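Final report, Chapter 2: Outcomes

The project's central promise was a pipeline that accepts a single protein chain and returns its three-dimensional structure in a standardized token representation, suitable for archiving and comparison. That pipeline is now operational. To close this chapter, we reproduce one record exactly as it appears in the project archive, with the input sequence first and the structure output second.
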Amino acid sequence: MKNPNKKDPYAALRIKEFNIFLLLRFALVFAWSMQFIIIEWQVYSITKDPLSLGIIGLMEIVPALSMALFAGHIVDQKEKRNLLAICISFFSLISLGLFLLTWPKIVQDWSTNSVLYCIYALVFFGGFIRAFFGPTIFSLIALIVPKKIYPNAATWSSSTWQMASVLGPATAGVLISIIGVHWSLCFVFGLVMFSLITLSQIKKKPILNPKIGEPVMQSLKEGIRFVFKTKAILGAITLDMVAVLFGGAVALLPIFAQDILKVGSEGFGVLRAAPAVGAFLTMLATAYLPISKNAGMKLLAAIFGFGVCIIVFGLSSIFWISVVALFFSGVTDGVSMVIRQTILQIKTPDHMRGRVSSVNSMFVGSSNELGAFESGVTAKLMGTVTAVVFGGTMTLITVITTGIVSPSFRKLDLRKDIEEHEKDD
């Protein structure tokens, strides 16, 4: 006889529209991660300068940060399905532009700097689009699944993101060596168009914001005030932001692959995929073993472990040790991501999801690009290995400091919040 108290690890997957959403998200993340890897490889191949990798991150973070809060306001005011369609359409233009920029005739006729600056320009444009992607997808999930299975949906959605992040970099590395950068970007464009077609299978959703037409500044202030007032959300995203900012070794992987470990594009793909593999497997495990109990301590322990893995990776000169270190950095990051997403989904009201997700993207999402810039600058100043070890050490210091100064965060437990959501449904 079935135990009524036992959690169903496949609860969200029993909803047809959620499965369509996962397919859509997989295609988008797969395409985006492939495109970013290909751009990194191409830019470093052109310049042989670690700072150029940092500039890629800077070009994306500037517009993403400047538009984040306004994007959250717009997402809370608009219908989510159509807004996502607009985002994907613009993404397709970027992919098409990068494909054309690597056309052999253009590469031959244009100067290296002209091609490089155009790549930076398209990445910059992509930063504006990314500001809308996160809040729109975060809000759409909550309109597809009932509240009582938010944690389960967050786990599967994050797992899908990680699976795409596993296959995207690995595929990019293989395709670069087989068909080259140009046709690899054509494959990316095809994936983006597939995601746009898939989105048509999801119905339009109601707008749950009771304050349609609310003045922009008042709306933004309300969103920021909510985040800073909700200590669980503020603590989680701040801690993760610092870890990602200083632990951004992934941005320097082209240097490790080409100059330190000397493993070529295939090895680069393996290195880039290793942390995503670890995170994906961890997220699958959390579907069966929820980590809501003692969530604060688990989050602190996960990010501490992440810092240790980054230090080991930085010090390693052996390929498979580097792969293992990156794999376990993904394991710890997977725990962190599931806890953070669960906190956001459970503690955010429906009418504020766009704005809260935008603040989160400013703290965490954009810190990936800012971390890439920080890694590029420190690698230029300190050397690549020293920069990675420095970042891991700063992550450890941040975790220890947070654990000491914030006892309430150490005691954070999500079980009661989850039970209340189940009663509401």
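Archive annotation: The chain has a mean pLDDT of 79.
This record, like all others produced under the grant, will remain available to the consortium after the project formally closes.
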